[in-house]
Protein: Sodium-dependent transporter
Organism: Vibrio stylophorae
Amino acid sequence: MSHIRPGFSSRLGFILAAAGSAVGVGNIWGFPTQAAQNGGGAFLLVYLVMVVVLAYPMLIAELTIGRLSQKNPVASLRALGETRLMQRTGVVIGVAGITVLSLILSFYAILSGWLLSFMLAPITQALGWSQLTHWLENFSLSRNLIMMAVFMLLTMHVVYRGVSAGIERWSKRLMPLLFVLLIAMAGYILTQPGAMQGLKLYLIPDFSQVLQPSLLVSAMGQAFFSLSIGVCALMLYGSYLSPQENLPRTAAMVAGLDTSVAFLAGLLILPAMFVAQANGVTIYQADGSLQSSDTLVFTVLPAMFNSMGQSGVLLAVGFFALMLIAALTSSISMLEAPVNTLNEETGCSRHKAVWLIGSLVSMVSALVIYHFDTLFGLVVKATTVYAQPLLALLFGVMLTWVLRQNRLLKALQSGSENIEHTWFWRIWPSYVKFVCPLLILLVFFYQ
Ligand code: PFF
């Protein structure tokens, strides 16, 4: 590739963009919902362990693959092998990763369209436009299609602008805003009656639940999804990262930011559930299970906001705006990977690639919307529960089994010259080579 490749213009830009990819609906909706379903504190504890023992080491692996070749994911994986067979294997894994990523974007855009609707609904309601409010708040083919398309256009617009003018600029604007909004909202909710009950559930683990198989499986899946691992998005961002950056440290910052946002979202949502309960909203069914668990944020929270009068309207708009921001910084990373790959591998312009892939993903999204009951859950499960851990495992295998050790060391030495003499170098390669695949397979067969 002879052209000069664009990249992130600063370290902060990279960290915010990568954290932007990681922080998304998975943190603000997925994590608190899973925590509420799986014993609160127990889930939080196991999740933190999963991030440290599995997700973080795999994140370093994925970023390393990208930074090593400074190319798109397919080329990066191809470059790891020395024989033809291994290079072809790399290409197949790369194409699989990009395909799964595009499928994730296809359902993510539908969810994000709902977020957009729920952000607009309190405004249209305050304006007295009841028909429009009704349309926005209720599940319908037209609402799902139109809002998905609007969200896809937003994503395409940012990706179209390129890496530093689009992705980096928007991540730098949106991520700090997200933090501020989240802290302000959690702070407000914690002062409301009922909040302490939720806080206790969230922070005090029930140790009898910690080793439950279903909890372990959910926590692993959540950690992979939340850190965007196994689908080439962060591999591509790694390829935009400057050679002067220390990879383990940068990865730690990204993982730390992502986990902090999930933790903060838990501080908001779990107390909010009990505030809603104190306001007369039913959150638990008679058998003790969570009411409408998957759509928790679309049922319980709006009900709570509604019961709060004027400030509820502001909170509702703020909350869904927050989710939308998080979703957008994730979706741009999902679109950027296939766009960059098409651009570099075929020479097709960025502009064309954005339109081509954006339209293709929107068409798949539309198909999922038309056959929602059969396809939605299937696509979510196939991509996030099965494909993500499996592909992450294959990335790890390519990096530690296929790539020569001296090249791996060189890759890590860039940005951290003395890494050879650190504990990290003594442990991490064998850990990713043997322990991570074993752990993933173990949990995988469990499920
Ligand atoms: N990590 C994002 C979230 O938690 O919502 C989802 C995601 C983004 C998954 C990017 C995969 C990806 F490549």
